[in-house]
Amino acid sequence: MPQTVRAVVVKSKDAPAEVEEIIVPDPGPGEVVVDALTCGVCQTDQHFQQGEVGDDFPYLLGHEATARVSEIGEGVTHVSVGDKVILNWRAVCGECRACRKGQPQYCFDTANAEQKMTLLDGTELEPALGIGAFAEKTLVAAGQCTRIDDVGAESDAAVGLLGCGVMAGIGAAMNTGEVRRGESVAVIGCGGVGTAAIAGAKLAGATKIIAVDIAPRKLEKARELGATETVNSGEEDAVEAIRRLTDGFGADVVIDAVGRPETYRQAFYARDLAGRVVLVGVPDPSHQIELPLIDVFGRGGALKSSWYGDCLPSRDFPMLVSLYQQGRLDLDAFVTERVTLDAVQEAFETMNRGEVLRSVVELEAS
Hints:
Its cofactor is Zn(2+). With 366 residues, the protein is α/β, with parallel strands linked by helices. It folds into two domains: 3-147 and 336-365, Quinone Oxidoreductase, Chain A, domain 1, CATH 3.90.180; 169-307, Rossmann fold (3-Layer(aba) Sandwich). It is 27% helix and 25% strand. The chain has eleven helices and 18 strands. Strands 3, 5, 6, 9, 10, 17 and 18 form a seven-stranded mixed β-sheet that branches. Strands 13-12-11-14-15-16 form a six-stranded parallel β-sheet, sandwiched between helices. Strands 7-2-1-4-8 form a five-stranded mixed β-sheet, with no helix packed on it. It is globular.
C-alpha cells in the first residue's frame, strides 16, 4: 500500500526547501523502497533548488544517503528487506557501450525508478539524482542500492557520504588521477570533495600532498585528513607555491575541486611535465577557459574530468566502508554537524558560509 511520509521539497526555482507530505508508491519490478537513515547536505541539492540542473520542479531533494531496505519489487535479488545500503546515482545498466567495453563506471544509461513519488495532490516529484533521500522513505531503482556491512547507527552519517561527495573526491585521486605510491599531489579547493581527494591521495600512497585554499580553517582540516603541506592562495600564488614545494617541478597530479576557470588554470600550470590534471569540481555551464594550444601539447600528460570519482559503487563502497572499519579512512571527520529534516534550508546557508564539510540529516531524529 502506498505510504505517506515527510520529505524536503522545493516547488519552484529559488523557493525554500520545505518539509511536505509526499506519497511513496509500492515498489514495482526492479524497484526498492527504503527507509532513509541519514542524508548528507550536498551542494548539488542546492543546484537543483536554484534551477541550475533543470527545471523539472517540484524536486524531492537529497541523495547522499544511508538507508535500510523496507520493500522490494518483483525481480529484485541482490538486496533483501532489512539490508543496510548506501544509495548511489550510478545504477549500471550492463548493456550500454561503456558497460560492454568493460567500463561500467562510465555507464551511459544508469537506471532510476520508473514510478514517481507525488505530493498529496498527485503532482509528480522529480527526485534529485534519481534518489530523493531527504525523506523518511524513498523509492529507487534496485541498482541504486549498494549493500554494506551494518556499521552501527552512530556511523551511518559517515558512511552515507560515500554516496556522493566523499566518493567523488576519493575517486578523483584513486580512480581518475591514478595516484601512485611516492607521487606528489596538489588539491585546489578544500571543501568536502577536495578534502576527500586528499584522503584518497593518502590512501593511494602519495608522499607529498599539498592542500590549497583561501580559508585557514579548511586548510587545518585538510592537514588532519592527510595533507603534508598547505598553501593559502589568498596570500601567495598557488602555482608558484606548489612548484616551490615540489623542487620546482610541479605536482605529479593536481586535482581541481573548485571548477572555475582560474582554478583550472592553476591546476594546469602547477603540474609537472607529463603530470595529470583532474577536474572534479562541477563548473558553471557558462564558464569557459582559454589555454595556449602549444602549452597543452608541450606539457604532455593528461587532462581528465572525474564523473562521480569514476567509481563503481558495487566495488568501491564496500571497500571504503571496510577501510573505515579498519581505521584507515576517517569518514567521521567529514561529518561537521547532525541536523533534522526540518533544517535543510538552514544547512544550505551554513554550507554557503563555508562553515562545514558536511551537515548530515538524521531521519530518525527528525
